[in-house]
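Bench log, entry 3. Co-assembly request; chain sequences pasted below exactly as received.
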Amino acid sequence: MELRMSTTAELMLNGRKWSLPIVEGTEKEHAINISSLRDQTGLITLDDGYANTGSCQSAITFIDGEQGILRYRGIPIEELAANSSFVEVAHLIIMGHLPTHEELRQFSDLLTENELLNEAMKYHFEGFPTTAHPMAILSSMINAASCFYPELLHEGGRSTFMVQAARLLSKVRTIAAFAYRKSRGLPIIYPKPDLKYTANFLHMMFSQPYQDYELKPEAVKALDLIFLLHADHEQNCSTATVRMVASSRANLFASAAAGVCALWGPLHGGANQAVLEMLQQIHDSGDDGSKFIAAAKDKNSGKRLMGFGHRVYKNYDPRAKIIKKACDDLLARLHISDPLLDIAKHLEAAALRDPYFVERKLYPNVDFYSGIIMRAIGIPLEMFTVVFAIGRMPGWIANYKEVMEAPTRIYRPRQVYTGAALRHYVPIKDRR
Ligand code: SDX
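Structure output for the full assembly:
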């Protein structure tokens, strides 16, 4: 029989007792609301990495890490992956419901209307060295793009939110493709109004002047699925960053640019690039993965099994299951046999039998197989995290909207001070 959760938690300290309210979520998950803790007790909480701390109440995405459940606005990721598209899921995540035919047409038209960059932005790309990482370019150019929309800077662009959201979601793809082309010394390829979101991205990435890239439907579908599976993931590091910046009432583009920077780290969105580098290193060393797994278990090696483990999932990441199957399907359809996929599968099988990984509940996450698909499509390694950022844009936009619409206080965590006790200024002549 399910234990009925109490509506308050009692805190006993120094012979005194305080009551703190319990908050219940849609899926009966519970939290102790400590908003009054410091006023009541003078104490704060401390939680390294916020592993036990909820920063907000949100209606966008639900994850059950123990069950391996992921739902966007209540709809299971497996159903969306099987039936939907990235643009339809972007509408679901941002607006809260699956679009009607008319709503989808309007949203898609808005993305098409906003796919071009202001022509003056072309010259910004000239200033980057060809070796610049595209995540640095992406973050810079998202803020640069905001300069062409002064209305964004007033009242956070609330009155024109959907246009701003469409501008950001559409242009992030154009900026990414232009950054890639510039890094290769190639002429930029403009978007084509008759192409849908993901096909247009591949066109801008790989077409040549007067010779369009051959859009293989299976490649377009696989990349669209990658975008869809990355679209949101509750309060991960980069989304929490977007909410942090949004809470100061900064504009949507500034908040998204901050999200790009947080996503770049190898422990977060940068992991998909790190997984391929790891697989390539294992392949080049002739190791079957055993040596690498041994190193990943050795704290002194500084190595981790990239693409494995997750703060929330203590079960298989449902997205990894879907991507692994899409990987097999795509490589079979493209008649590609990739030794790195074989190594990845061997690593997964070995790790899932190894007590080190089993005891710590470390399973493949979304990044473990996604890079193999991107490699099969021809997307270069340094663009992998950029693809993740494009996919995550709807989630960042929806979280920004949620902060703007709720009476959110500015995010300002407290701390426990462990520095020097009171001391006084010493003139340099007296210092030793
Ligand atoms: C994403 O939050 C999200 O939702 C993120 C994301 C999203 O969609 O936004 O899902 C996308 O970022 C996926 C994660 C991508 N990162 C990687 O694949 C990098 C490798 N994984 C890890 O570094 C790690 O698992 C994290 C960062 C993902 C989670 O880190 P935690 O929750 O802080 O866990 P931890 O570092 O405290 O590890 C717990 C234990 C430690 O060992 P002990 O100290 O208990 O002995 O597990 C070990 C860790 O050393 N461990 C690993 C490991 N991950 C954790 N050991 C080897 N290889 C790994 N990959």
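Strands lie at 8-13, 16-24, 30-32, 61-64, 69-72, 75-76. The pocket of s-citryldethia Coenzyme A is lined by residues 49, 233, 236, 267-269, 271, 296, 304-312, 360, 362, 365-367 (CB under 6 Å).
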